[in-house]
Structure formats: structure tokens, C-alpha cells
Specification:
Residues 3-117, 121-229 form the Response regulatory domain. By secondary structure, this protein is α/β, with parallel strands linked by helices. It is 37% helix and 21% strand. The model has no long low-confidence stretch (mean pLDDT 92).
Length: 233
């Protein structure tokens, strides 16, 4: 059974979705504004937030931001008819499982909600765009949310998230080998970290995480992530 918070100023849409989820045995709460959503999160713990982007008052990106300050483990899905709007970048930086279009593809949405994981945020530092996109999609397929950086300087903007694990390439632009890893470890002390590299010889001597040699078995990596996530209890 999942616990879902649905935020949309279109009450009819939100209530229709809530009915579908409740018929499937879930708990769904409807809020028609960001302010109502904040009240709901203070009163109850939810697994997934689903929010529209364009609403009077608080935008969907602001809803994600403020609700995550209350409950960092909340998974988030955003729906929008305007994929080019600037606030979407803010929402993505906060970490969203998916951005869905309007009208919403209901089967895809229900499937996403069913597999979304609480406390499932993964920091992903990788400069290869194809590998980054592939890992992001594979993580999403298992219900994990990825928040990414492609260079050493970009790591700094990851400080507002609460990940349970990190996947970090040792060699990314903007600094010497291992600098992105050093910054991730400084931002998130004690975080379970997987180093993805074809250059294990430059691994820091004090590294106590997990080495994943490129090219790697994606299935084995996902299994290891799921094991780490499962131990959070």
C-alpha cells in the first residue's frame, strides 16, 4: 500500500486520480495548493508527491522544494503542459522521479507511483551524457530518483538533497582525478559511495566505498543499490 499526496489546482483531475489509486488499495490525499500540501506533509508521512507545475501561488517546483525541507525522503513526480518552463530546472535539481506531460498518460503515471521509492535518491556524477542518461533511466525503472552533476563545479549544487547512495566517476571535468569524489564525500559524510571508473589506479588511498570498474554490469550495480536501500529499514 502506498501513501500519495496529489497537488493540483484542478481538483477534478486530482480527485479522479485519487479514486483510481484508492480503488487499487492505496491511500491518496488531495491538495489544491502548495499551502495545503505543506499542511498535509506536517500531519502525515507520504511515499510520493505528485504535483502540477503551474498553480496559483506556489509553483510545483516550490512545492517540491518546501515539502522536501519537511520530509527529505519524499519521492516526487511533476506534471506539466509547459516542459520548457524555467522552474523545471529547479525541480530537477531537487530530484524528481519523472516529469510527465499534460494530458497525463494515466497508465504510465500509475506504474510510476507504484514503483517509486521513499528515501530513494541517488547522486550521480558522470560526464558521459549517454551513460548518464542510461543510468538515470535504469534507476527510474527501479523507482530510484537520480540527481546529477557532469563536472566538479556542478557537485556543489547537490548539497540541498538527501541521498542514500552516490555513483561517482573518478575522472570528470573541472578538477583533478578524484576531486568530484572528494566533494561528494565532504557534502555527504558516511554516504555509501560507488566509484565508477576505468582508472582504479587513481582511487584515493582512504576510499572506503565500493569500486565499480568500467565497463560494468548494470544489473549487478542495481542489485547492490537495492541491497543498500533495503538496509535503511
Amino acid at each position: 500500500m502506498g501513501r500519495f499526496l496529489l497537488v493540483d489546482d484542478n481538483r477534478a483531475f486530482a480527485e479522479n486520480l485519487a479514486e483510481i489509486l484508492e480503488d487499487a488499495g492505496h491511500v491518496a490525499t488531495v491538495a489544491v495548493s502548495g499551502e495545503q500540501a505543506l499542511e498535509a506533509v506536517h500531519a502525515r508521512r507520504y511515499d510520493v508527491l505528485l504535483t502540477d507545475m503551474r498553480m496559483p501561488g506556489m509553483s510545483g517546483a516550490a512545492v517540491v522544494h518546501h515539502l522536501r525541507r519537511v520530509d527529505p525522503g519524499l519521492a516526487a513526480i511533476v506534471i506539466t503542459a509547459h516542459p520548457g518552463e524555467a522552474d523545471l530546472a529547479w525541480a530537477r535539481d531537487e530530484g524528481v522521479l519523472a516529469v510527465l506531460p499534460k494530458p497525463v498518460p494515466m497508465p504510465a503515471l500509475v506504474e510510476l507511483l507504484s514503483r517509486a521509492r521513499r528515501d530513494g535518491l541517488v547522486v550521480l556524477v558522470e560526464d558521459d551524457p549517454h551513460l548518464l542518461d542510461n543510468l538515470t533511466e535504469v534507476l527510474r525503472s527501479r523507482g530510484f530518483t537520480a540527481v546529477s552533476a557532469r563536472s566538479v563545479p556542478e557537485v556543489a549544487r547537490l548539497g540541498n538533497v538527501s541521498p542514500f547512495a552516490a555513483l561517482v566517476d573518478l575522472r570528470v571535468p573541472g578538477g583533478p582525478d578524484g576531486e568530484a569524489l572528494r566533494r561528494v564525500r565532504a557534502l555527504f559524510p558516511g554516504l555509501t559511495t560507488f566509484v565508477l571508473t576505468a582508472h582504479p589506479d587513481v582511487l584515493p588511498g582512504d576510499f572506503d566505498g565500493r569500486l565499480v570498474r568500467k565497463p560494468f554490469d548494470t544489473g549487478a550495480l542495481l542489485a547492490a543499490l537495492e541491497q543498500v536501500h533495503g538496509r535503511r529499514g
